[in-house]
Amino acid sequence: MISVNIFNPFNLFNPFNFYKMSLELTINENLKKAMLAKDEKGLRALRAIKASILLAKTAEGASETMSEDTEMKLLQKLVKQRRDSIDIFEQQNRADLAQIEKEEVAVIEQYLPKQLDSAELKTIIAAIISQLGVTSISGLGQVMGVASKQLAGKADGKAISAIVKELLTPQ
Q1: Among positive and negative, which fits the CA dihedral 104, 110, 111, 114?
Q2: Which stretches of the chain are DSSP H helices?
Q3: Radius of gyration of the chain measured on its C-alpha atoms
Q4: For 119, how many CA atoms within 13 A lie in the half-sphere containing its CB?
Q5: Contact between 34 and 46 (Cβ < 8 Å)
Q6: Count of CB atoms situated within 10 Å of the CB of 13
Q7: 104-138 pLDDT, tens per residue?
């Protein structure tokens, strides 16, 4: 059987074959979908992400495009801010405001890579500790430096710190 290659101009240049949509484009597309669906929770979180992206892009010395690392750091910052707000609202007995923040965290986390669970985190950090040869709490900074770089975007800094302290503290 002879196969005939028919010229199709759409196959010649399809940007989606080798181009991953930037976070900004993804957010804009999802913002439109949320508006059409009248999803207030999603709209609130997506608008916050879009505002942060615009602030980051218009900051002094910022480039026109953002790297994937910068995008992930931006999203992690937004999640951290909301988690801090949740803690404050719960301390002040404002469950209504805490609920709003939790909804936004749920939406923002959809754009972050899957976070490691405690067991996986403990295994990775134990390997880092043995690799560095650290045996006491005095090496905390050294372990945190390596672990933070290796686990960037995969785990929260507080969780990493807690597990490092747990593993380095004598039992």
Answers
A1: positive
A2: 9-12, 15-18, 23-37, 40-58, 68-91, 95-109, 118-132, 140-150, 157-168
A3: 21
A4: 0
A5: yes
A6: 7
A7: 999 999 988 888 888 888 898 889 888 888 888 88
